[in-house]
Design goal:
Helix 9 runs parallel beside helix 10 and helix 13 runs parallel beside helix 14. Strand 14 and strand 15 form a beta hairpin. By secondary structure, this protein is an alpha/beta fold. It is built from 19 helices and 17 strands. 46% of the residues lie in helices and 17% in strands. The N terminus is likely disordered.
Length: 509
């Protein structure tokens, strides 16, 4: 039985076929180049032109340097590898679908900027962050939104179930990982019951994120149960050379007035019912009020790019199914990040928070794989006297990635950044909090994939009560964590060389 399960495992099949495909291509070109000196010379010239092309591209410098060095090391095949593997842009088909879908919802953003105007009267610099998000992603700031912060996945899950039970009109779910178990089974039970009550239930999950967790054709199985379902960017063995652009977002919207987001997926380790890497530390938030509209639009933009079900979006507005006035402290700005934008929106927001910090900035991230720009923002803030603290996992989920994370510690520690490893286990949270005023809670890791390649979402909080809840959680988490010293980062000559190589090629993975 175990062997049968192993043989039919989709990720094993996909990986095997991709390896066979790469080996076949390499063998073909190896034979060609050994057969003719002219073909050999042509491939080397191609690599040279590819290097010049890479230099001229408007891309992250670390990504370009990694490819240039790889091509210099492999002049015969490097250029070909770039042609097959180096394109970070979404496929033309995906880009066209999502661009058209976004244009259909653009009119929904054309409203008065009352919240932004009020923020300008309080703090021009903070308002600048909000204006940047509005200009590059269209998603605006809102008032009248109550924010609840969750320091653990199990706490948020409890309220997620209550919100699902209360649904009367529609439920939208979008998650990177869904795995059969206690957490998902409880959600699925409610979803099926709600479908029988006439609630419009829609589900999106990332196919690569679930490739080893759900059986093939699981979306069709949910459709049979009345749940509208879509697997985003399906994995196609042999034809899928690179599965770069994943839907890493986590969104739950209920009846337009309540939304949940953060790092928490629908799998048992996120609520500590399964122990994989010690205690699983995650964070999330619940929004109730006007700002939920942005998460509704995020979901519908992706959904209608492929399903095209909704011509009138007015039926999903927050106030339609919640006649009582909304209330809440401060300003809330959900935002989306997409590889279609050719701009690292979240990284720019993170750096701006660091640049305007006066007293402290506390950061949760499972991975610390950053480029020179982010490293400079972290170190400059610390050198200005800002108390910059970063919490990373004490027990890693991926040893090589953890080694790469640790390889970035030394220059940060030397500049005065304080780094802690979460002693009880793995920290999956992606959160920033700064100066008791500003915070970000979302799905965006501090690594190249999240910052440049994935579809992500986050929520900027300004002067909300929940900002202080996040600060208190950060303080308590730091107390449970091990402070990393510079002495622990010394790896010797060979270890240092390995770390240098890992940092060099990190943008390619």
């Amino acid at each position: 039985m175990k062997y049968k399960k192993l043989i039919t495992n989709r990720i094993l099949i996909t990986a095997t076929l991709l390896i066979l495909q790469v080996v076949w291509i390499v063998l073909v070109f190896w034979r060609l180049t050994s057969y003719s000196i002219w073909i050999n010379a042509s491939f080397r010239i191609l690599s040279m032109f590819i290097v010049l092309y890479i230099i001229g591209k408007d891309e992250n410098a670390a990504y370009k340097i990694a490819w240039i060095i790889l091509i210099l090391c492999l002049p015969l095949f490097g250029g070909l590898m770039y042609l097959f593997l180096g394109n970070k842009n979404p496929s033309k088909k995906m880009k066209k679908r999502l661009t058209l879908s976004h244009k259909r919802i653009e009119k929904e953003f054309q409203v008065e900027e009352e919240a932004l105007d009020e923020m300008r009267s309080l703090d021009e610099r903070a308002a600048g962050v909000s204006a940047y998000l509005k200009n590059v992603s269209d998603y605006r700031a809102y008032k009248n939104t109550d924010v609840t912060y969750y320091p653990l996945g199990e706490l948020m899950f409890r309220d997620m179930l209550a919100a699902l039970e209360s649904a009367e009109y529609y439920i939208f779910l979008e998650f990177f990982i869904v795995e059969e178990g206690v957490m998902w089974n409880k959600v699925l039970e409610i979803l099926e019951r709600k479908v029988s009550q006439g609630v419009d239930v829609r589900m999106m999950y990332d196919d690569m994120g679930c490739v080893a967790l759900l059986p093939g054709g699981y979306a069709k199985e949910l459709e049979k149960r009345g749940i509208k379902c879509m697997a985003f960017n399906p994995v196609i063995p042999f034809f899928s050379m690179v599965m770069n652009h994943r839907d890493h977002r986590k969104i739950l919207v209920v009846d337009g007035h309540t939304a949940f987001t953060g790092g928490i997926n629908l799998a048992d380790e996120y609520i500590n019912l399964k122990k994989r890497f010690g205690h699983w530390k995650d964070t999330g938030i619940r929004l109730k009020g006007e700002a939920v509209w942005s998460f509704t639009l995020m979901f519908l933009e992706m959904w209608n790019a492929y399903r095209k079900e909704d011509k009138n979006l007015e039926q999903y507005r927050p106030r339609l199914h919640h006649p009582q006035p909304f209330s809440g402290s401060g300003y809330v700005q959900p935002f989306a990040q997409s590889p279609l934008e050719n701009e690292a929106v979240a990284e720019n927001v993170y750096m701006e928070i660091l640049n305007q910090a006066r007293h402290y900035c506390y950061i949760f991230t499972p991975y610390l794989i950053v480029d020179n720009e982010m490293k400079a923002a972290l170190t400059q803030a610390a050198k200005r006297g800002v108390d910059v603290r970063i919490v990373t996992p004490g027990i890693p989920d991926k040893p090589l990635v953890f080694r790469l994370t640790r390889s970035n510690y030394a220059p940060l520690l030397k500049a005065g950044v304080r780094i802690y490893e979460y002693t009880p286990g793995f920290i999956h949270a992606k959160s920033y909090v700064c100066d008791d005023e500003m915070a970000v809670v979302g799905t965006i890791n501090m690594d190249y994939r999240s910052l440049y390649l994935h579809f992500e979402c986050g929520t900027l909080l300004y002067r909300c009560d929940a900002v202080m809840d996040l600060k208190m959680d950060a303080v308590q988490t730091i107390r449970k964590s091990h402070p990393v010293s510079l002495r622990e980062c010394r790896e010797g000559l060979l270890g240092g060389l390995l770390d240098a190589v890992l940092r060099l090629f990190a943008p390619l993975f």
